[in-house]
Amino acid sequence: MLLEVQNLNTYYVTSHVLQNVSLNVNEGEVVALLGRNGMGKSTTLKSIMGLVKPKSGTVTFQGKNVTGLPPFRVAKAGIAYVPEERRIFPQLSVMDNLEMGIKGGKQSTKEGIWTVERIFNHFPILKERAKQQGRYLSGGEQQMLTIGRALMGNPSLLLVDEPTEGLAPLMVREVRDILENINKDTGVSILLVEHNVKVAMSLANRIYLMGKAHIGFSGSKDELEANPEVRAKYLEV
Amino acid sequence: MDPTTAMYVSQGIHGLAYGMILFLVASGVSLIIGMMHIFNLAHAGFFMLSAYFTYQFVAWTGNFWLALLLAPIATGFCGMLMERFLLRPLRGSGVIGDLILTVGVALCIDALVKVIWGTANKPLSKPPLLQGMVHFAGLDYPYYRLFVIGLAVVVLLIMALLLYKTRIGKIVRAAVSDNDMVNALGINIPLLFTFVFGVGIWLAGVAGAAIAPILSVFPGLALQMGMDAFIVVAVAGFGSLRGAFMVSILFGLMNSYGVQFISQLAPLSMFIFMAIVMIFFPHGFFGESEEE
User: Fold this and answer.
1) CA–CA dist A173, B178 (Å, integer)
2) Which of A118, A224, B133, B137 is the most exposed place for a label (fewest CB within 10 A)?
């Protein structure tokens, strides 16, 4: 197992925002974490990443306990984070944004690793805009840059938070396809938080549904599709 | 050059020299606020501490140049210790905690220099190489003040190179906009904070060491410079180095010409200017559009 989250409890001051959340991701898998707004999906990713410190529970990655470690240590362990608001560095060029993702500042020459050239092959538009400041990219281009920047650290697991939010339908499809290619071509596992159920279902091998602060369902796509009550309870508005 | 023009030019260069010193201090304040969101009210205390270190190093070695090199480094190291052992444990506790702590450190520095060096002024001679006046176009101007301007320009260029041409500079600029995200990319942000805090204090240290032979060294140094530096940063906008540079020069000139023409009001002019700017630009001139 690549990632194992067990009984995670996280608080925002006195508000108990994650209650005994448990989930796992296997090597090469795409796992979707779905649910309505405010259920704790993004907080789950932030708690795994160390951006929010969980009060109890464990996060084990490749057999190593990374619970509550500072984010830079979690990143060094092999987890990369693609945040909801994209959070590119607007004053840096596209190239500098990508290089910011290289851990330790020096690109290894090992085979099979992500390099700027390889990123540009997956995202040709970024090559065209390599010297432009991040602030001048469109929403879709910024999303590609965020994914590219995360890949530059050669992670084994991508935590991707709402990658299609606010994008035009054509761009939604492109970002979806990019995630699929990354997973299929390189075997990078993905834990995906996504409001667009159709996109999530088309990508994921397994699905977790979150109710208020807890996991309410876990199963395969087929199991979820065969269960309209669960869908209505956790997904429909 | 007729005497009136010479006076204007001389006051202008005076203003430029003070503006440069102000920039060295304010740029450190701005860097620390911009990246770490810490209002370090002890910043000017370190400026003063560096002036005392300079005095002490000169007393020990008789070599001003060595003192100019070592005093800011020693001061920057003290700043790093403060960040690592006092500020870091407080991170996340909010602005009030930082303010109380940094005021406390400022008071400690003030008390410490009085205990070690006393309250009397400590005069410091200019190095022999820079004593005397330069004569040009009928104007006499002290070599040392021109040296201070040159020193500040060199430091400014080093900082610009560091910030814009090196990876660490890019990381610092990225962290100014989003330090959590930089952290999540595998970069050791706590270590970076200690480094940046040290560099910010080193900048104040360079200013303190450079100004020591002009003003002499006394416990009130921190109060005057601290107030001016924070006004510069407020008017320029938090985190804006370019803004801090421009406003520092403007204030240097205002101060210099103000003393000449409206000597009664000169000390107030910066406060009045700040109040007017805050009304129309609550985030300062460059507060929201840094780093084009």
Assistant:
1) 28
2) B137
Domains, chain B:
3-280 (1.10.3470)
The shortest C-alpha distance from B179 to chain A (Å) reads 10
* A153, A100 Cβ separation under 8 angstroms: no
| Residue A121 located in a structural domain | no
Kindly provide the ipTM of the predicted complex, given to two decimals.
0.91
Interchain pair A71, B173: CB under 8 A: no
Q: Which residues of chain B have pLDDT under 50?
A: 289-292
CATH code, domain with A77: 3.40.50.300
Asked whether residue A11 is domain-assigned, the answer is yes
Residue type at position A60: T
Contact A70 B190 (CB under 8 A): yes
Contact A28, A36 (CB under 8 A): no
Chain A residue nearest residue B164, CA to CA: A92
Within chain B, strands assigned E span 133-136, 139-142
Amino acid at A221: K
Find out whether B201 and B79 touch, Cβ atoms under 8 Å. Answer: yes
User: What are the b/e assignments for B157-188, b being 16+ CB within 10 Å?
Assistant: eebeeebeeeeeebbbbbbbbbbebbbbbbbb
Q: Cα A162 to chain center, whole Å?
A: 8
Find, among A4, A7, A2, A3, the residue nearest to A214 by Cα: A7
The number of domains in chain A is 1
Q: A135 Cβ partners below 8 Å, 6+ apart?
A: A90, A91
Give tens-digit pLDDT for B90-103: 987 888 999 999 99
Q: Considering CB atoms only, which of B177, B178, B188 is closest to A72?
A: B188
Residue type, A13: V
| Cα B247 to Cα B157: distance, rounded to the nearest angstrom | 18
**Residue A229 in tokens:** 């009550």
For residues A169 and A128, give the distance between their C-alpha atoms in angstroms, rounded to a whole number.
Answer: 22
Question: Which residues does chain A have within 8 Å of residue B190's beta carbon, measured at their own beta carbons?
Answer: 70
| A103 in a structural domain | no
Nearest CA in chain A to B177: A89
Work out the angle between the directed axes of helices B241-261 and B221-236 (0-180°, nearest 10).
120
Question: So what's the pLDDT on residue A10?
Answer: 97
| A56 inside domain | yes
Q: Are B18 and B11 in contact (CB under 8 A)?
A: no
What's the pLDDT tens digit per position in A84-128?
988 999 999 999 999 999 876 666 556 668 889 999 988 999 999
- Quick check: A72 and B171 CB within 8 A? no
Question: In chain B, positions 174-203, which contact chain A (CB-CB < 8 Å)?
Answer: 174, 177-178, 180-190
